[in-house]
């Protein structure tokens, strides 16, 4: 029997959830270890010994080797699965969206959510660029999803996994999805494909 992987993450984090979703969807044996990020769990010596960067998610292999960064982890987990397109150009397009998600989506939508939802900051105290650039990201997704069912064509890929994590939580960051009518049906399609329930 294959030894399980160990996944460290905070269940309130979209970056952590996407790792759990892929492992569960693909039936990869794994053990989940909850890390309380707001409570300082990533700064505890035992965790820093595993990941000196002090970040989750973190994958620990049975031999003790580790892998960090959510999109690197899901790319490793999904190797050889249907979540990664076989065609080179489609695979590159998937990676394009995954890189974009960490550079132009998560830093605005997830960060604004964290400040409003967890830190309870007033909206007028936040950097207005968070709302502006988060809306830019949602508009770009809207334009893509007006033309296809998923971010890379007609089947779900890791690009959808990466992007759905915080898009479905966007309202907690003060983002209204109503102006982007293609997004809610897409969220439902991805949730159904992955076998996860709706975000409540």
From TrEMBL:
GST N-terminal domain span: 3-85
Domain of life, per lineage: Bacteria
Pfam families: GST_C (PF00043), GST_N_2 (PF13409)
Ranges where the GST C-terminal domain occurs: 87-200
Record protein name field: Glutathione S-transferase family protein
Organism the protein comes from: Methylobacterium brachiatum
């Amino acid at each position: 029997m294959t030894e399980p992987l160990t996944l460290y993450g905070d269940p309130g984090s979209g970056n952590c959830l996407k790792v759990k979703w892929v492992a569960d969807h693909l039936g990869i044996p794994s053990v989940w270890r909850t890390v309380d990020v707001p409570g300082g769990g990533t700064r505890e010596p035992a965790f820093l010994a595993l990941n000196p960067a002090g970040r989750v998610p973190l994958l620990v292999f049975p031999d003790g080797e580790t892998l960090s960064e959510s999109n690197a982890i899901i790319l490793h987990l999904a190797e050889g699965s249907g979540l990664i397109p076989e065609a080179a150009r489609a695979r590159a397009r998937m990676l394009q969206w995954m890189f974009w998600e960490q550079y132009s989506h998560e830093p605005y939508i997830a960060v604004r959510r964290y400040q409003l939802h967890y830190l309870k900051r007033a909206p007028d105290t936040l950097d207005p660029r968070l709302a502006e650039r988060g809306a830019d990201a949602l508009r770009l997704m809207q334009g893509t999803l007006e033309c296809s069912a998923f971010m890379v064509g007609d089947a779900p890929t890791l690009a959808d996994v990466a992007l759905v994590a915080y898009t479905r939580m966007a309202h907690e960051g003060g983002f209204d999805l109503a102006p982007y009518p293609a997004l809610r049906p897409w969220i439902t399609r991805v949730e159904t494909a992955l076998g996860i329930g709706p975000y409540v």
